[in-house]
Amino acid sequence: MNTKKIIVWFRKDLRVHDNPALWEASQQGTVIPVFIWSKEEEKEYQASDSSLWWLHHSLLSFQQRIPLIIRVGNSLEVLQDLIHETQADAVFFNERYEPSIVNRDRKIITQLKAQYIEARTYNANLLYNPAEMFNHNQEVYKVFTTFWKKSMNVIAHHPVPTPYKFEIYKNPITSVKVEELHLLSSKYRSDKLEQYWKPGEQNALEIWEQFLSNNLYKYERKRDFPASRATSTLSPYLASGNISVRSIFYAARKDDSPILQSFIRQLVWREFSYHQLIQFPTFPMKPLRSNFEHFPWQKDEVAVDCWKKGLTGYPLVDAGMRELWETGYMHNRVRMVASSFLVKHLLIDWRIGYEWFQQTLVDFDVANNAMGWQWVTGSGIDSAPYFRIFNPIIQSEKFDSNGDYIRKWVPELAKLPAPYIHRPWDAPSDILKGIDIQLGSTYPLPIVDHSSARLRALRAYDVIKGIKKT
């Protein structure tokens, strides 16, 4: 009988399938499954009501499968206490890539090895090891297209098997209840999110199977249309680790249909953002193009507040921001339009948008959030060109032509027919009066004029064009 006792330290990987740390431990000895809540260590990356709500319910869901030991405190100290209490021989865990977490984990590994405790880490969150994805100069890829081409010539890591039966440590040991972590700070937020989401591994797998069966082949054609419900909505499950990106990747490649490339490309884009974060630890709060440190951002708290509340006067932007507040999620196409509006129409520093998304998104992910905002701003390595300024009216007419998405999230405009629902200020007064819409009262007039805002943005970008980039 194998007497080796192994602490499996669960973090953003509350799942049994494709969990390398759990699988390896289950093959080598007795598993001691542990989750440590250290609010101070996590505050930089998981500070929002939305993400904490998700964590709370993920833990409850996971405990239905594995009797998880939950402790609170400094991670190293808790691990050392558990090693002493259980006489554990090893600590296995899957890697995370947030900069301060990376530094913390390195210190923990060093300390454990100094105490002659085996410490092993595994890649469970990425398709490829970062070292496999350098260019011919042994540098990180700076353009997604070349990264994508490289990925086609590298074999993504296969999922590990699911350990259906394994020995779990059975001796009595102190553990706190999920409720004692006090992760649910806002009942209003909790009640809202419970209407739209069911966190946890089993729910993630069910959603994936439904998408795989019903919408995967429609994804390329319909993914940009927010009213079509054609996306997988798996992003919060991926961000929390409820589901494995490698399992999704290989399931989506079940045949060679070129139609599936569009979905797979999104998974590789996610990968690209993580590789950027690993190479550039300041990625979440510092522009990768240094000349953007001199960008003439505006300080306009009123405009920021209108953007957050979905009161900009641009229906598609407002619909997206209200969807975000209501559900903790926003359709990707609308997310790009709303982000661009903040940065380029209002000239508000992208980091303010980053922080708002961090506070509100159930799928908040450090690497993806930073990549999205730096891409829209033009401050990242591979970014949208500075002169690409999304026209929220054209975007609305193109991707929500009938206005169904807007009607759902901006109900005060629900009776306004297309095309006026995309630009209410152009609607004839008799139409507005007939459906009781008073612009500036029941729905705001645009807080900026698109054409004027576009010219102002281009002038602002001209300011930094001559500044040397590093």
Features:
3 domains; 470 residues; Serine Threonine Protein Phosphatase 5, Tetratricopeptide repeat; single chain; mainly alpha; DNA Cyclobutane Dipyrimidine Photolyase, subunit A, domain 3
Give a description of the structure:
The longest helix is centred in the middle third of the chain and has 19 residues, at 261-279. Helix 12 packs across helix 17. The chain has helices at 20-28, 39-42, 49-63, 75-86, 99-114, 144-151, 187-194, 201-214, 219-222, 235-240, 245-252, 261-279, 301-309, 315-327, 332-345, 350-360, 366-377, 392-399, 404-409, 429-434, 450-465; strands at 5-10, 30-37, 69-72, 90-94, 118-122. The protein is built from 21 helices and five strands. It has a five-stranded parallel beta sheet with strand order 3-2-1-4-5, with helices on both faces. It is globular. Strand 1, helix 1 (20-28) and strand 2 (30-37) form a beta-alpha-beta unit. The protein has three domains: 5-124, 3-Layer(aba) Sandwich (Rossmann fold); 126-158 and 188-279, Serine Threonine Protein Phosphatase 5, Tetratricopeptide repeat, CATH 1.25.40; 290-465, DNA Cyclobutane Dipyrimidine Photolyase, subunit A, domain 3 (Orthogonal Bundle). The protein is mostly helical.
In short:
The protein has 470 residues and is mostly helical. The protein is built from 21 helices and five strands.
